[in-house]
Amino acid sequence: MFTTSTQRRAGAIGMAAAAALALAACSPSETAEEPTAGASAEPTAAEPTAAETAAFPVTLDTVMGEVTVEAEPQRVVTLGSHEHEYLYALGVAPVAVPESWQGYANGTGPWAEDDRLAAGAEPELFVPGSTVYDAELIASFEPDLIVATYPNHTMTQEEYDLLSGIAPVVTRPATDADGNETAEWNVSLADELTLLAEATGTTDEAEAIIAEIDAAFAEVRDAHPEWAGMTSQVGGFYEGQAFVYSANDTRNQFLANVGLDVASIEGTDEAWMQISAEQLDVLGDLDSIVWQVATTPEARDSLQSLPLFDSLNISAVGGSIWLSDPVLEGAFFANSPSSVFYSIEAFVPMLEAALDGDPATEVVEFSSEG
Fold this sequence. Notes:
The chain is of the alpha/beta class and 370 residues long. It has helices at residues 4-10, 12-24, 28-31, 50-54, 83-89, 113-119, 135-140, 157-164, 189-200, 203-223, 250-257, 298-304, 313-317, 326-334, 337-354, and strands spanning 58-62, 65-69, 76-78, 96-98, 124-126, 145-148, 169-171, 232-238, 241-245, 272-275, 288-292, 320-323. Helix content is 37%, strand content 14%.
């Protein structure tokens, strides 16, 4: 499907599939690496060019206020689950990143390995704290830039001030490309990548990546004009109830980018919306739903056993897509440049089967094991 312009990143799919079996077999305790106090992995980036040097100082408009980066960062520390993958794509090698929630070595899934290796990144892994950031640990990495555009918890003003005493802290952009205020954890890939590129002097690289991703999505839409106007959502099952994510969640952004309508359900303005068994019919007219069940496989039976499940349109037309592969679940969640290409390769065949209107068509679940 991809043109030559997208083959460089799509090539990561083959490597990821080959590595997935070994990676998926590892538990977080087996793959996590303990940080060394005061660790100081040396960056491998080349000397800055004149153009990169001219990019600084730069002042960025973030949700926590304006932040100035005086010179090209050499020691970047990330605090969230995917920022390091954005930096790898830009050719930037952070010195420390959080442990992967899926237990992957180097803090990231196989979809981003090509970008990591190309950037020369061998980061220290650490646990940044699930409710409070460990400022002393973060300071031990001697950062000259701290990135928290997709943090693992909402950063307080007190935390921001404390971390800003260590290095400039880049949080999510204050506004999106259209000038609207951004919502936590729902920033678009393009807006986040653009901000990180400005912070690291890699704007040209970001523009090329965004153009490449836009072309890949456009290729899918052009190949499937029949998807225009068809509806979809990403959801799952939690604490006894079905749920769907907000229309601007990054996973639903992906579905919108391939040409589907993800804004047809009222009440999904927040991060997610739980739906009781008695109200499941609010999903009744959707043409497809991507059900996330990789980390909660028992959720599949729970969903299908709900009294109203068989009455949904997705049951009549075969529109359920079961996201049962843990590697794909991680990539879909990451929403980084490398993971988007991985997700396109994985989801398009499933969407083609789910959206053909024929319930007899089997929607073959993606497997990273081949």
